[in-house]
C-alpha cells in the first residue's frame, strides 16, 4: 500500500515545527510497517528534510526553483483580512482567489506526481493542501483523510462554500482531541475520527533534589502570536529579584529572525541578559528537558502539543494559560501543572507558586509523567494504520 503525505502549501525544508516532525515520524513508522511512503511538498529551495527519514521515503519537491510559485498578491491578502468576518455569508471572493492562485501555480505539477505515483490514500496536512487536491483530476478516485493540527476553528479557518465542498470530499477528518469533534461537525458532514499525536516515552526523569540553581524551560518555535515567548520573559522579570537562583531558557528556531531580535531587545531592556537565554534549535530534546525544573508554556492555543507532553513525560511540572485551547485540557490545574490567568502577571503568579514549593513541583511532575504515558506512539500509529486500511478497503469495494 502507498501513502502520500501532501504538504504543498507551506515550506518544509529547514523547518523544525511540530507539523514537520509529525510528518517525518509518520513516514518513518509507515515505512517500518511495510508501506510505500511519498512526501510531496512545495518549497523554494532543495535540501534535506527537517527530521531524519529513511531512504525508502520518496521526497518530491514541486518547486525548488528559488522563486515562490504561488505568491499571493498583497491586495488579495488585504481583501481576505477585511472580509474574513463575512465569509459565512458568502463574501469569499478573496479567499477563493487565493485558492485559484495556488491551484494554478502547482496543480499541473501535482497531477503529474499523483498520476505517476498512484497512491492508495492521501493525507493533506493543511486545509490549503486539501483545497489544491480537491481540484486535482488525478486525485479524484483517491481517498483523502484531512489532518487538523490545531483547533477546528484555527485549522479550518473561514468556511466558505468551496472549502465545505472540499472537506466533504474527504473520507474522514482527523482531530487531536475529543473536544475538537463538535467544531468539525458543525462545519461539514464528513465523519470525524480522534487520533492524538504520539509522544516519545522518554525513560529519563528530572531530579527533584535541592540544588544551587534552577531552570525554567520553554521548547517551541519562536512565534509571537501563537507561542508568545515574550509573555514568559515579562513574567520572569517580575520574579527575577525574588528568585535569584533561577534562569529561563528558550529552545526553538525563528522562521524570520524578527521575533528573536525583538526578544533579545526585550531581554536587554529588562536587564536579564545573564538570566534569560535564547538557546536556538535543539535536537537533544530529552537531554534538554532533563536540565529543567519547570516547563513554561505561554501559547495562546495548541493542537496537541508534543513539546508539552514530552516535558510532562520527563516529570516537568508545567505552567500554561487557562484560556489556551488544548493546553487547558492537557494541563489539569493542580494535578499535573498549573493554569494561569491572562497576561504576564497571571503567568508570574502561577510560576511563583511552583518556584517557591519544591514539594508541589515533585507531586505535579510525577503526575505529569504518568499522564503523558497514555500517548505511546505505537498505539497512535496502530490507530492511523487501521483507519487508512479501512479507507483503502472501502475504496476498493466501492
Description:
The protein has 2 domains: 219 residues, Rossmann fold; 161 residues, Rossmann fold, CATH 3.40.50. It has 15 helices and 13 strands. The model has no long low-confidence stretch (mean pLDDT 89). Strand 9, helix 9 and strand 10 form a beta-alpha-beta unit. The strands form 3 sheets. A 6-stranded parallel sheet has the order 10-9-8-11-12-13, with helices on both faces. The longest helix has 25 residues. The protein is an alpha/beta fold and 398 residues long.
Give the helix/strand layout.
Elements: E1 2-7, H1 18-32, E2 36-41, E3 58-61, H2 74-83, H3 93-117, E4 121-124, H4 127-133, E5 145-147, H5 152-156, H6 161-167, E6 172-175, H7 181-185, E7 192-194, E8 214-219, H8 229-239, E9 246-251, H9 258-269, E10 276-278, H10 285-289, E11 294-296, H11 306-313, E12 318-321, H12 327-330, E13 337-340, H13 343-355, H14 358-372, H15 377-397
Helix pairs in contact: 2-3, 3-4, 8-13, 11-14
Largest sheet: 6 strands, parallel
CATH architecture of the largest domain: 3-Layer(aba) Sandwich
Structural class: alpha/beta
| Quaternary status | single chain
- Percent helix range: 40-55%
The radius of gyration over CA amounts to 22 Å
Q: Which strands sit side by side, in order, in the main sheet? A: 10-9-8-11-12-13
SSE pattern: EHEEHHEHEHHEHEEHEHEHEHEHEHHH
How much of the residues is beta strand, in percent?
5-15%
CATH H-level superfamily title of the largest domain: Glycogen Phosphorylase B
Coarse shape: globular
**What is the total tally of β strands?**
13
Give the helix tally: 15
How many domains make up the coordinates?
A: 2
Distance between the termini: 17 Å
Name of the level-1 CATH class of the largest domain: Alpha Beta
Indicate the low-confidence ranges by residue numbers. none
Amino acid at each position: 500500500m502507498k501513502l502520500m503525505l501532501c504538504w504543498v502549501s507551506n515550506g518544509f525544508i529547514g523547518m523544525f515545527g511540530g507539523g514537520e516532525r509529525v510528518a517525518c515520524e509518520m513516514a518513518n513508522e509507515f515505512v517500518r510497517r511495510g508501506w510505500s511512503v511519498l512526501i510531496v511538498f512545495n518549497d523554494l529551495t532543495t535540501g534535506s528534510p527537517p527530521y531524519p527519514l529513511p531512504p525508502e521515503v520518496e521526497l518530491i519537491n514541486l518547486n525548488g526553483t528559488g522563486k515562490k510559485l504561488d505568491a499571493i498578491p498583497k491586495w488579495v491578502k488585504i481583501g481576505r483580512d477585511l472580509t474574513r468576518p463575512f465569509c459565512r455569508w458568502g463574501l469569499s471572493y478573496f479567499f477563493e482567489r487565493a485558492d485559484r492562485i495556488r491551484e494554478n501555480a502547482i496543480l499541473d505539477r501535482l497531477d503529474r506526481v499523483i498520476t505517476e505515483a498512484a497512491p492508495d490514500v492521501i493525507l493533506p496536512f493543511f486545509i490549503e493542501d486539501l483545497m489544491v487536491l480537491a481540484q486535482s483530476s488525478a486525485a479524484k478516485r483517491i481517498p483523502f483523510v484531512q489532518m487538523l493540527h490545531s483547533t477546528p476553528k484555527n485549522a479550518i479557518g473561514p468556511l466558505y462554500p468551496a472549502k465545505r465542498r472540499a472537506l466533504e470530499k474527504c473520507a474522514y477528518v482527523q482531530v487531536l482531541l475529543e473536544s475538537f469533534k463538535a467544531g468539525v461537525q458543525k462545519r461539514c458532514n464528513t465523519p470525524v475520527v480522534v487520533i492524538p499525536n504520539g509522544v516519545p516515552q522518554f525513560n529519563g526523569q528530572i531530579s527533584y533534589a535541592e540544588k544551587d540553581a534552577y531552570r525554567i524551560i520553554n521548547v517551541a518555535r519562536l512565534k509571537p502570536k501563537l507561542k508568545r515567548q515574550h509573555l514568559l520573559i515579562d513574567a520572569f522579570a517580575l520574579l527575577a529579584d525574588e528568585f535569584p537562583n533561577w534562569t529561563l531558557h528558550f529552545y526553538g528556531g525563528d522562521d524570520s529572525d524578527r521575533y528573536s531580535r525583538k526578544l533579545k531587545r526585550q531581554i536587554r531592556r529588562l536587564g536579564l541578559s545573564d538570566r534569560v537565554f535564547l538557546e536556538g534549535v535543539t535536537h537533544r530534546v530529552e537531554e534538554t528537558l532533563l536540565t529543567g525544573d519547570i516547563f513554561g508554556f505561554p501559547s495562546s492555543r495548541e493542537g496537541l502539543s508534543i513539546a508539552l507532553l514530552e516535558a510532562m513525560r520527563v516529570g516537568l511540572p508545567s505552567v500554561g494559560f487557562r484560556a489556551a485551547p488544548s493546553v487547558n485540557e492537557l494541563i489539569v490545574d493542580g494535578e499535573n501543572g498549573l493554569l494561569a490567568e491572562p497576561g504576564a502577571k497571571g503567568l508570574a503568579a502561577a510560576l511563583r507558586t511552583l518556584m517557591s514549593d519544591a514539594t508541589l513541583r515533585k507531586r505535579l511532575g510525577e503526575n505529569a509523567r504518568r499522564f503523558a504515558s497514555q500517548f505511546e506512539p505505537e498505539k497512535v500509529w496502530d490507530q492511523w494504520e487501521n483507519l487508512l486500511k479501512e479507507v483503502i478497503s472501502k475504496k476498493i469495494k466501492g
